[in-house]
Amino acid sequence: MILISGSSEREVVDLQQGDYEEMDQLAIARPLCKAAFRVLHAADIGIGVARAIRAALSGRPGGVYLDLPAKLFSQVVEAEAGARSLVKVIDPAPAQLPAPSAVKRALDVLKSAKRPLIILGKGAAYAQADEAIRALVEKSGIPFLQMSMAKGLLPDTHPQSAGAARSTVLKDADVVMLIGARLNWLLSHAKGKSWGESGSKKFIQIDIEPKEMDSNVAIVAPLVGDIGSCVSALLEAMGSTWPAPPADWMSAVNARKEENIAKMAPRLMKNTAPMDFHSALGALRTVIKERPDAILVNEGANTLDLARGVIDMYRPRKRLDVGTWGVMGVGMGFAIAAAVETGKPVLAVEGDSAFGFCGMEVETVCRYNLPVCIVVFNNNGIYRGTDLNPTGGSDPATTAFVKDARYDKIIEAFGGVGVHVTTPDELSRAVNKAMDSGKPTLINAVIDPAAGSESGRIGNLNPQSVLRKK
Ligand SMILES: Cc1ncc(C[n+]2csc(CCOP(=O)(O)OP(=O)(O)O)c2C)c(N)n1
Ligand SMILES: [Mg+2]
Q1: Within the chain, what is the greatest distance between any pair of CA atoms?
Q2: CATH number of 270-456
Q3: Please, where in the chain does CATH 3.40.50.970 lie?
Q4: Whole-number pLDDT of residue 194
C-alpha cells in the first residue's frame, strides 16, 4: 500500500511555528513504514512515485508513505516536460532466485524427516504462486498447516490439511518447512510446550527476506528468494520419485484429525438459543462452503480465534483478518476495500467490541451500496458479557458493554438492512438473503455472554501473577 498525503509547509513545521494541522508527518511515518519519501519539486513526482512503487512491491512487500507538502500543489511544469518526467516502473517485484546449493540443502533435510510438516504463511498467499505451491505440497505428500491469511491457498478440506490436528503436528513434527511464514508470536516463536521438546525440530525456511532467518530459533536450511522461484526450484530438484512421508506419521496425523473433527461436529450443529460461538460459526461455515468466492473479513477475540478454526476456506486470498498485528478496527475498511476491489460479496464476522472500533463505516457501506454483510457476534462485551467490576464499585466492568444492544439498528439509520437473530437457522437464513441480495446488511447475532473466554485463545499471553502461579 502506498499512502499519499498532503502536509503542512516545511518552513513553518520545521520552526514549529504552529501551522494548521502542523505535524512532522514524514518523521512520524518513517519508523512505521517500509519506506517514506517526500517530493518537494513537481519535476520529481515521477521519480517519487516510482520509488514508492518499488519500495512497496519489491522484496517483502510493505506500506510506503509519500509526503507532498502543500506548496507542491501550486507548482507548474510544461506538460511535455511533465510527461517526460514520469517513470514506467519495469518489473517492480523482480524474481529473486534461490541458490542451487540452498535448494539442495533444503531437500536433503526434508528427505531425512520422519515426521515432516509444511506451514504456509501469508507470504505464500501474497506470492500468488498458487499452482506451484499446491504441486509442491502434493508431490511431497506432507501434512500442512495454513496460517490465518494463508487459509484457502489449498482448500482447508484438502486430505493433507492438518488444521484439525494442529497441536499434534506442531508438537510431534521433526522437520518443519516454513513457506512465507514467520516464527513470530502467532507460532509461539517456535518455543514452549506447543512445540514439543526443545531442540526436537529442524527448520527449513523459505522467505524473500534474508534477515528473517534465525529470527527466533536456528534455521538449518534457509532458502532465500521469492516464493514462486523457490517453490519451483524445489519442485524441479525433487524429480519424479520423491518418497512419501512415513506411513506411521501420516496415520497418526489422520487419526488425530478424525478424532478432533468428530468431537467438534455436534458443537457446530447445535441449533439452540442463545447461540454460542461454535453453533453460530457452524452456520457461517456452511455459508462460505456454498460461496467459496465470497471474501471473509474477521476480527475480535473469541470471534476471531474460533472463526479461524471453524470456517474452512477454499480459495486463496479470500480471508482478511487482523493478521500479525492483531489490531481491532480493520474490519470495515477491509470489507469496503474488498467489495470495491473485487465486486464479490463480503461477509464480515465481527466481535461486538471489534465492530465498535470501526462501526461508523456502515455509513460508507450504505452510501456506496456495497455488497457487505456484517455479522456482529454480540456477547455483550469484550471476551464475555458477564464480567463484574472487580473493585465492587457501581461502574460496570471495563470489559462489559450495554446489555442486549441492537447493533442492527445502526445500519437502519443509513437505509441498510438490519436483522436481529438468536438461532443458527435464523443466522444462516439472514446471511444467505444478504449475500443473494447484495444489500448492505448488519445482522445482530445474539451470543451467550458466558460462552467466551478471556483473550479468546491467546489467554496464555496474559501476564500471570507470580503469587497465583504458586
Ligand atoms: C486497537 C486495539 N485495541 C485494543 C485491542 C485489544 N483487544 C484484543 S481483542 C479485543 C476485543 C475483543 O472483544 P470482541 O471483539 O467483542 O470479541 P469477543 O471475544 O467478545 O468475541 C480488544 C479490545 C486490540 N487488539 N487492538
Ligand atoms: Mg464480544
Answers
A1: 76
A2: 3.40.50.970
A3: 2-85, 270-456
A4: 94
Q: In which residue ranges of the chain is CATH 3.40.50.1220 found?
A: 100-255
* In contact, 311 and 284? CB cutoff 8 Å: yes
Which CATH topology does 100-255 take?
Answer: Rossmann fold (3.40.50)
Rounded to whole angstroms, how far apart are CA atoms 53 and 64?
Answer: 8
Nearest CA to ligand 1 atom 13: 382
Q: Over the stretch 325-360, which tens digit does the pLDDT of each residue have?
A: 999 999 999 999 999 999 999 999 999 999 999 999
Between the CA of 404 and the centroid of ligand 1 the distance, in Å, is 18
For the whole prediction, is pTM greater than 0.70?
A: yes
Residues 234-239: what's their mean pLDDT?
97
CB-ligand 1 contact for 234 (6 Å cutoff): no
Q: Are strands 116-120 and 175-179 parallel, antiparallel or unpaired?
A: parallel
Cβ atoms within 10 Å, residue 49: 18
pLDDT confidence bin for 38, thresholds 50/70/90: very high
C-alpha cell at 229: 522461484
Q: Which fold has domain 2-85?
A: Rossmann fold (3.40.50)
Q: What distance in angstroms lies between residue 85's CA and the mean position of ligand 2's atoms?
A: 52
Pocket test for ligand 1, best of 328, 332, 349, 407 (most atoms within 8 A of CB): 328
With a CB cutoff of 8 Å and minimum separation 6, the contacts of 337 are none
Tell which residue, 55, 109, 37, 45, has the closest CA to residue 76: 45
**Rounded distance from Cα 389 to ligand 2 centre (Å):** 17
Set of cell numbers at residue 167: 497441536
Q: Is the CB of 328 under 6 A from ligand 1?
A: yes
DSSP state of 293: T
Strand 202-207 relative to strand 295-299, pairing: unpaired
- Helices 227-238, 100-111: axis angle to 10 degrees equals 60
- Which single residue is written with the C-alpha cell 512445540? 195
| Residue-level pLDDT at 469 | 61
